Amino acid sequence: xxxxxxxxxxxxxxxxxxxxxxxxxxxxxxxxxxxxxxxxxxxxxxxxxxxxxxxxxxxxxxxxxxxxxxxxxxxxxxxxxxxxxxxxxxxxxxxxxxxxxxxxxxxxxxxxxxxxxxxxxxxxxxxxxxxxxxxxxxxxxxxxxxxxxxxxxxxxxxxxxxxxxxxxxxxxxxxxxxxxxxxxxxxxxxxxxxxxxxxxxxxxxxxxxxxxxxxxxxxxxxxxxxxxxxxxxxxxxxxxxxxxxxxxxxxxxxxxxxxxxxxxxxxxxxxxxxxxxxxxxxx
Length: 283
Known about the structure:
The chain has helices spanning 2-46, 48-55, 131-136, 141-158, 162-167, 169-184, 203-241, 245-257, 273-282, and strands at 56-59, 63-69, 72-73, 82-85, 91-97, 101-111, 117-128, 189-200. By secondary structure, the chain is α+β, with helices and mostly antiparallel strands. The strands form 3 sheets. It has a 3-stranded antiparallel β-sheet. Strands 6-7-8 form a 3-stranded antiparallel β-sheet. The termini are far apart. The model is unreliable at 1-12 (pLDDT under 50).
């Protein structure tokens, strides 16, 4: 055990020596960078009229700039808009557009929860709210956002049935927007809106749905006609129950006068006494 303790002490000493060496090297690099920055600033001041055009850059109102000096981000927020001063041989500038960007999600073949294949595409609107995260946390932010939108679209619609997709499109788009925001906000992006652009069903399924809708409309029309006939018969029965024999006779003559003369209609005349017999039997 004494040997083991000695080995542990030696390892700890080596680790402390390595960490101290790393701190010293980092400190030396920082000092070297500070010296280069001071020398560059002095050179710019000495040759100011000539180097002014090289060290000045105009940033537009809708842009922001992240500056890397000797590979490190300059402390503070992203710079801009307006006139920006930098050291050309030490600084690397990354411009970030802060305007809202839209892109189309290519049509994706999706299988819904009830086993129906769909072709769906969408439109996504987003904008950069933190240029520093946009540059530091993701390599190609636009491509990453597009890929994320594609996978989110497939996952969100795949968890719903066909009827839910057709009837609750705004709600599905809102859920997709929330999922995209939770992931992309770590990249300094705010997803503003998601819209489902088009839903394409298979041709056979479209025909089946059209036939189903037509059958439903036909059945509803027949129900309406049948209800109208029932109401008409009830109204006629109620009207006939209050008519006398004279009223029946007048109504009979009025119906005879309304028959067109030019049509081929066969009229059978019945004596009015038959109606009296029918009424007496009803009583």
